[in-house]
Specification:
The complex is a heterodimer of chains A (496) and B (354). Chain A has 496 residues and is an alpha/beta fold. Chain A has two domains: 4-231, P-loop containing nucleotide triphosphate hydrolases (Rossmann fold, 3-Layer(aba) Sandwich); 249-492, Rossmann fold, CATH 3.40.50.300. Chain A has helices spanning 43-50, 73-78, 96-101, 108-122, 137-150, 167-182, 194-200, 223-231, 291-299, 321-326, 336-340, 347-351, 369-382, 399-411, 429-444, 456-462, 485-492; strands spanning 4-14, 17-28, 32-36, 58-63, 66-68, 81-84, 155-159, 186-191, 203-208, 211-217, 249-258, 268-276, 280-284, 309-311, 314-315, 329-332, 362-363, 366-367, 417-421, 448-452, 465-470, 473-474, 478-479. In chain A, the strands form five sheets. In chain A, strands 13, 16, 19, 20, 21, 22 and 23 form a seven-stranded mixed β-sheet that branches. Chain A has a six-stranded mixed β-sheet with strand order 6-7-8-3-9-10, with helices on both faces. Chain A has a four-stranded antiparallel β-sheet with strand order 2-1-4-5, covered by helices on one side. In chain A, strand 7 (155-159), helix 6 (167-182) and strand 8 form a beta-alpha-beta unit. In chain A, helix 8 (223-231) packs across helix 17 (485-492). Chain A is elongated and about 70 Å long. A two-stranded antiparallel sheet of chain B has the order 1-2. Chain B has one domain (2-349): ABC transporter involved in vitamin B12 uptake, BtuC, CATH 1.10.3470. Chain B is an all-alpha fold. The termini of chain B are close together. The chains are: A alpha/beta (496), B mainly alpha (354).
């Protein structure tokens, strides 16, 4: 039987962010659909709407021409929509079978039979009696899939299913998904991995900043065209005026590796690069390819081998962020509200987070409030933060003003190197311009920048050198003049 | 129609209003319960909350009970403010009492000004040792500090039980489960003739002042505050998050240990099976009722201390079990948590569409 799922004019607004802006899509069974977009593009919100976790502000969902009322996850189950989330919802200490029976509503024996049939049919082999914590990520995912299949779903939604899988497990998953599709299950596959889309899917919908950007047949697309759609490339090539940069080396990274215990993080493999004074190195890539880990390794949140980072002729790989600041490094993390600043604390308290010995914010272990306040006032006036009340809690600053405060806090001490990660993410045009001008200005003062960004426009505008990070590996470093957006697109998708 | 909407930011006024609201609702619910039990509600509440502190002796008893509650709650506020859920203060109190009691017993037949400070110090160290167990397990082995600290409470009580029945029991004590009386030099001095309130109250007041100073005036306090709001930010700023966790546990263990010292060297004067009527657990309520603020905690400890006294009075004059006191403590916490809902949500009366 044919299944038709229709999303009609769905809008979901969170405070300060439009997660889904008038999205309409139609899916038919027999095909595998890709929903493609960067982190924060609105894919997950859309999927949560389909699975009843989030209720849209406007818009309707139709299944086979009938309006669906999805007020809770159980409504989605009742309407035969199955969902495998990126983070598994399994009880680690219970056995596989216990996990499956919990909300199945089936008798023990019936269920066992059902599971056996499913496992035979799709060639799954999972031991039902072992506790889930002993399973590999791939097997856990199979348990989640079996849980959906028990209910014989019409629609199966997979949210970033391969982020924790090995190559082998990925190709097994793809075989199963193709089989499900042949049997008439409508499959919606959410990802930001372009290769997988090309390999697996028949149609692809791209989302960006909450909006649906395009829907197309996979035959009409290639990795570069999808990458461009995803990051919103409009092929402008404004570049900054090329100054004579010095040839004095500032930072050198040698054979830097990072292996994470967390399967949701990306390992960094053999990172090597160097940067001269006055230069800006842009690191491009589709988010989730190791940018966050790279930032943490460079900032010292993740400590690495002492000799792997040489900064200004000192080896500093084993120092923490505070110690690295003493060597005149500064950091602006991606997450303004969760990491770079504490919204519940006053502006001047947030300023104290970037603390040098010479700044005397804390004398003999005591807070020197007047010193911090004086310093804060200076930042506010020099960096155009639109407030004059430094006792204000920073949650009341707009995103742009908060970012100006953070960048100002990092730059007022005139560091030799600023490492920033998506510094203009989510800001309005005015604030973006201000941040860009500031970054160009510090380059002109012979200070260096490492700019990790998912915004290709920004990278082409600001960088002297560009490299692309893909699956934790850096591409070779190119001069920005030689780089075209097409080339970046290929590299971001994992091509050569 | 009434609609519940999320507040854009927690209301400051509501933040200080909800503890008062919680106390009011507790009194209301308590009155209803008394009414159902067949008592006159106002009279019963008067017996519970006013009669016990109506005279000098009663007021001294109030301070006597409030002292350990305040001290422990101050310590716990360090943990709770930095999102470390130490709920084993009762165990840390007991272990502090064991260690300081052990030291006091060494000097049972001696006199000297130096004995009391050693005993007090021993109690603080005992509490710290005991609090370091969940802290180290949490930081290095990823265990859940709620479970570990809670389970250790029962371990410490069993150790105490063993000691007072076995090796430490009073050789001249006719096999009662208690130790010798401590030497007078190991006892906290009484403040007034005929009243039980003792110098331990100064320990509590000192803790209040010191904790306020540390938390609001020092770099250490700043780091704790940041780590409590966001470990990610702490890491980014370069603070040592793990050390911070262990430190707050040590502080709260020391405070609980001191509360234990105060009990055994104050009113009790020896070790026996029950060194604390669950002060360590009740102090959790005190800490939250006082909004984790030093001054708030002073008031909260006084309010909650009344429930201990009231329960005793009610038992004597109304023949109802003293466990009623725990019912009131439970209700305070319940209503506090329930009214905290108002911090983040507000009621909106709507006629038409917004």
């Amino acid at each position: 039987m044919n299944t038709n799922l229709k999303i009609s004019n769905v809008t979901k607004i969170y405070p300060g962010c439009v997660a889904n802006d008038d999205v309409s899509l139609e899916f038919n069974s027999g095909k595998i659909y890709a929903l493609l977009g960067e982190n924060g593009a609105g894919k997950s919100t859309l999927v949560k709407i389909l699975s009843g976790v989030v209720i849209p502000d406007e818009g309707k969902i139709y299944l086979n021409k009938n309006i669906l009322k999805l007020n809770s996850p159980s409504d989605a189950k009742k309407n035969d929509i199955g969902m495998v989330f990126q983070h598994f919802n399994l009880f680690e200490t219970l056995s596989v079978f216990e996990n499956l029976i919990i909300d199945s509503g089936e008798q023990r024996e019936n269920l066992k039979e059902k599971i056996d049939t499913i496992m035979k049919k799709y060639n799954f082999s999972v031991d039902l009696d072992v506790p889930v914590l002993n399973l590999s990520a791939g097997q856990k995912q199979k348990v989640e899939i079996i849980r959906c299949l028990i209910r014989s779903p019409k629609v199966l939604i997979m949210d970033e299913p391969t982020s924790v899988l090995t190559e082998q497990e990925t190709s097994e998953l793809f075989l199963s998904l193709k089989k499900f599709s042949e049997e008439g299950i409508l499959i919606i596959y959410i990802t930001h991995k372009l290769k997988e889309v090309m390999q697996l899917c028949d149609e692809v919908a791209v989302m960006r900043r909450g909006k649906l950007v395009s829907v197309s047949q996979i035959n009409n697309e290639n990795i570069e065209s999808l990458a461009n759609k995803m990051v919103g490339q409009d092929l402008k090539t404004i570049k900054k005026k090329k100054e004579n940069t010095s040839s004095e080396q500032l930072i050198k990274i040698t054979n830097l590796n990072f292996t994470s215990e967390d399967p949701f993080e990306t390992n960094l493999i053999d990172i090597n690069f160097s940067l001269n004074r006055g230069e800006c190195l842009g690191i491009a890539g589709i988010s989730g390819n190791g940018q966050s880990e790279l930032f943490q390794v460079l900032s010292g949140e993740i400590i690495s081998n002492k000799n792997s980072i040489e900064f200004n002729k000192n080896f500093i790989g084993d120092l923490n962020p505070q110690e690295r600041r003493e060597y005149l490094m500064a950091f602006s993390p991606e997450d303004r509200l969760e990491q770079a600043a504490i919204p519940q604390m006053a502006i001047f308290e947030n300023v104290a987070l970037n603390n040098f010995k010479s700044s005397n914010f804390f004398n003999n272990g005591l807070i020197n409030e007047s010193k911090i306040k004086e310093h804060s006032k200076k930042i506010i006036s020099e960096f155009n933060v639109n407030t004059d009340n430094i006792d204000l809690k920073s949650q009341f600053l707009s995103g742009g003003n908060l970012q100006k405060l953070i960048i100002g806090r990092e730059l007022i001490t005139s560091p030799d190197l600023l490492i920033c990660f998506n510094p203009t993410w989510g800001l309005d045009v005015g604030a973006i311009n201000y941040i860009h001008e500031t970054l160009i200005k510090i380059n002109e003062q012979n200070k260096s920048i490492i700019l990790i960004s998912t915004d290709t426009d920004e990278l082409l505008k600001l960088s002297d050198k560009i490299s692309v990070i893909h699956r934790g590996k850096l591409s070779k470093i190119m001069n920005a003049e030689d780089v075209t957006s097409e080339k970046l697109g290929i590299l971001m998708g994992g091509g050569n | 129609m009434i609609k519940i909407v999320k507040r854009d930011q927690p209301s400051k006024a509501i933040f200080f209003f909800t503890p008062v609201l919680a106390i009011f609702l507790t009194l209301l619910a308590g009155g209803i319960i008394f009414y159902i039990l067949g008592f006159k509600p106002f009279e019963a509440l008067k017996f519970f909350f006013i009669v016990p502190i109506a005279d000098k002796y009663g007021f001294s008893e109030l301070l006597l009970k409030a002292t350990p509650l305040c001290l422990i709650a101050i310590g716990l506020s360090f943990c709770f403010k930095s999102n470390n859920w130490n709920i084993g203060a009762e165990g840390q109190l007991t272990f502090g009492a064991i260690v300081s009691g052990g030291v006091a017993l060494l000097f049972y037949d001696q006199k000297g000004f130096y004995i009391l400070p050693i005993v007090i110090l021993a109690g603080a160290i005992g509490g710290m040792i005991y609090a370091s167990i969940p802290a180290i397990l949490k930081t290095y082995f990823n265990t859940n500090e709620i479970l570990v600290s809670l389970m250790l409470v029962y371990v410490s009580k069993l150790i105490l039980d063993y000691l007072v029945v076995g090796p430490w029991s009073n050789p001249e004590g006719f096999n009662f489960p208690e130790t010798r009386q401590f030497s007078d030099s190991a006892r906290l001095p009484l403040l007034f003739e005929g009243l039980r309130i003792h110098a331990g109250i100064f320990l509590a007041l000192a803790a209040v002042v010191i904790s306020w100073f540390v938390f609001y005036k020092t770099y250490l306090g700043f780091q704790m505050k940041v780590s409590g709001f966001s470990l990610k930010t702490a890491k980014y700023a370069g603070y040592k998050g793990k050390k911070m966790i262990i430190l707050v546990f040590l502080i709260s263990g020391a405070c609980a240990g001191l509360a234990g010292v105060g009990e055994i060297t104050g009113p009790i004067g020896q070790l026996h099976r029950e060194v604390s009527p669950d002060y360590g657990f009740t102090a959790i309520i005190v800490a939250f009722l006082g909004r984790l603020h030093p001054v708030g905690i002073i008031f909260a400890s006084l309010v909650v201390a009344i429930t201990y006294l009231g329960a005793e009075t009610a038992q004597i004059f109304m023949q109802i079990p003293k466990y009623t006191g725990q019912v009131f403590q439970g209700m305070i916490l319940f209503f506090l948590l329930a009214s905290d809902y108002l911090l983040f949500f507000k009621f909106k009366f709507i006629g038409s569409k917004k």
